[in-house]
Amino acid sequence: SLNCVEWSLLPPATEEMVAQAEQLKGRFQGDPSFEYEYTEINAEDAERLFEDGKEPMVKEESRLVATIEQIDRAVGIIPRGAFLKTPLGSVRENRNFEGLSLTEAKKLSSYFHFTEPVNLKNKTLLEKADLDPSTDFLDSLEHDIPQGSWTVQLEKGGTVVVLRSLLWLGLTFYHVPMTKQYGYVYFGTGEKNLDLPFML
């Protein structure tokens, strides 16, 4: 939105948009038509773009779409059991999910990335033996690299569990134990905290 009254949907992100956005540094300008020039693009990529008839520029709208996609992939999370994987392989919302217990809600292992699993495929059969294939089909936050990239806090006298990402500063996830209430919101600059490994 340019006037906070009329709103339009952003186009879906492509892999090319994500790759281009990863090359850009600095904060957003606030103008969807603003064009960024590649300052650190290597000669090979620049030559390929010019051959395709494209100038090495990225619009802020494309960068925004790609950044939202990156944030969703990296820190879009759900509590364990909120979704189920059927024997046929489809993933569905668990209608019987009544929330995590307070004890479970305080553990990082009770939360999963809501994206295609990567680390799960690399586990040995022995490690997978204790997992329930209907609920443990996604990557757990406890194995995120670098270790310590999440904080777990109790709010409102222990009635709300809040997880905050230190990799994407501004991402906050909440879950009310013993209820179906959970979600996440991002209020940040759109910049990844690349200094995190040195801060831990």
UniProtKB/TrEMBL annotation:
Keyword Ligase (UniProt): no
Protein localization: Cell projection, Kinocilium; Cytoplasm, Cytoskeleton, Flagellum axoneme
Origin: domain of life: Eukaryota
GO biological process per UniProt: axoneme assembly; cilium movement involved in cell motility; motile cilium assembly
UniProt keywords, alphabetically: Cell projection, Cilium, Cilium biogenesis/degradation, Cytoplasm, Cytoskeleton, Flagellum
Entry's Gene Ontology cellular component terms: axoneme; kinocilium
Membership in a protein family: Belongs to the flagellar radial spoke RSP9 family.
Stated name of the protein: Radial spoke head protein 9 homolog
